[in-house]
Design a protein that fits this description.
single chain, 5-stranded antiparallel sheet, 12 strands, alpha/beta, globular
Length: 327
Amino acid sequence: MNLPDAKMKEEAWEFVAPPCPYFGTCGGCQLQHVSYASQLKWKHQRLVECLAGIVEPSLVETPIASPQIWNYRRRIQIHATPQGQPGFYGSGSAKVIPVSECKIAHEAINESLNEVEQRFHEIMERRQHSSRLGFELTVFPGTPVEIQALSEDRYFLQSNPGANELLHEHLQRHFLALAPKRVLELFAGAGNFTLGLSQGAMEWTAVESDPSAVAKGKELSLNLKKPVRWVEEKAHRYLKNRKGGGFDLVLLDPPRSGAKLCMPSLVKMQVPMVLYLSCAPEALATDLKILKNGGYQVTKVQAFDFFPHTTHLETLVLLRQVGPGTI
């Protein structure tokens, strides 16, 4: 297994024996062959390199480690082999590699793989083929594992609850220090941040394009008596057509492709503070460059390792408006 592409000397890596027998063929993990400490060093260096010329390296903190590095995922997608076995796509391949367990999946998910295989066989007996056959398995506290067909409507869910809790604590400290009164949340999902951060007299507008996520967010807001205004709309369209007063803070958590379409309108809004959570350093760099040219200054960068043994990284950036700029 080759090392990921990064300017980190090979002697700086601490190599270990990967515990998963599928490592190297399964495409799920890329870093099981190096120690967790080495993984965090590599992710930090990769983030610094991606943000070079945009953010001072001294502002990029070392990633906060996941509380669990094995069996941490509460949601996975599983696919069927032609023989109906559960598995994952191979590394750089559309071929499904059969597995009997996943080292990073929640124990309850692994215990459900026999049931998944049984369902695959039942469907294949009716269909006579396994093309595009798959399920998404999700663990919710106190309930059996939810098994949904990939064709069903599903809203986004952070798959590492322990790391998500650390991120929430970090965001809560930011909100206490910044004390915003009017918050705009873009790419709000079903309320992962909305429900925990909206407090008291705070005016909170949550924008999300997925109807199932908005419906769930409204339901949870009502149950928790959170006075959140939900808007079902694409983030960039909402910003472009927005009417009304200004916001003190914008919180955004875009998909892997980033939020480039939102950037021109966001700069024009001249919001005093922006909290940007990214799952893709390259897309983050593109968007931060636009915000920097638009008069914003990065004051803090903190990464969170939501996905140990993979190359993925979540990064939270705090920006403040320091002057006028150009788009």
